[in-house]
Give the backbone structure.
Amino acid sequence: MYKVLVLVIACLAFFGRTDGHSYHLGSCPDVEPQRGFDMKKMLGIWYAVEKTGTASSCVMYNFSKTDEPYEYELVQTSQHFILKYTPINHIYKYTGRLTVPDLSTPAKMSVKFPLNVVGTSRFNIITTDYDSYALIFTCQKLAFANRQSATILSREKTLDKDVIGKLRDILSLNEIDPHDLSIISQTNCPKPTSETNVIDIDDETLSAKTAGNVIRGTGNAIASGAEFAVEGVGTIVDKVRSEKKPEKR
């Protein structure tokens, strides 16, 4: 059964890399990062209110320090858009590592997520007031194209529409299409309990040592849910295709 669980998680990780991004020809666009950026003020929990083409919900970002200077951990949690069609009560957790290559521009970082075979991505803080909103943009160079993602973050579960409008205007000024953004629901989000299955994707997810602990608190519920995800993949795909696309502004 663990092999089945690991297979399901690997598939989820693949969908996690494609969900929330748009693809474009050429190199990554040059965006202006925030001047005088202070990462210490950025630390903590943020709610994603809009993000490039995603069907996931309850998306949260948590920035924290690491033991290494100018390196930070980014934990993204969400309700995965594939798993919502299964009986699994879950929180999908995806952990990456942020680094600051050039200390003169601390808002211009790079990020590495596990299972991303292409490597690191650019991670820019375009603007933030640290207390209410933040606008981030990531981009990864591919062979003849790039994949990019913009996210509007809020310290609260909602953000004033006027602020969102100004942030979307900033994207346009940087030649990033704000119409690619989807509105993310932050309602009816699960809280971690003893019955919640935390699907944790990090650097050691598929190692032989930790494969047995990939899904915490497994039990019969997660086992049947994984079997449902494998055996009912056709049904899941049909539901994804038929579901209404996430609302866009």
Remarks:
- The radius of gyration is 18 Å.
- Residues 2-18 form the longest helix (17 residues).
